[in-house]
Fold:
Amino acid sequence: METITTLLSQQHHDCDKLFAQAEESVATTQWECASVDFDRFRAAMEQHFIREEQILFPQVENHMGHTEGPTAVMRMEHQQMRQIFTEMAACIAHLDQEQYLGLAETLLILMQQHNAKEEQILYPMSDNLLNHQLPSLLEQLHQLGNNKA
Structure:
């Protein structure tokens, strides 16, 4: 049975593959491929963030009765990653391999820590808290992905 944990964790893995592909393109100075690969990675990450911020997080916050706590931390980390995405895109535009790879290392650490918190804490908690509305919630998560693709 599909759960929030399985669906969104799979998206993490899919994004990780796109990230590695973009990094490889930059590392081998294949700049045209790097631009395309990075755009695909960034779009997949943004789609994932939107699913969480527009569907999952509000449901968790509504159930908990507040917006502080784990969802606030996740939103802050999304913003940090978005800032790094902007800097990485600029590196590709300026063909700055060294700066890009440095930012990629920083982003990788941030993503690993972020994903671990979501996959080990937030998603399982969400599956438990929102169990009564899981089919509807999963449908919304899939629909948003289909509309943004």
In short: The chain has five helices and no strands. Helices lie at 4-27, 31-64, 70-93, 97-129, 134-148.
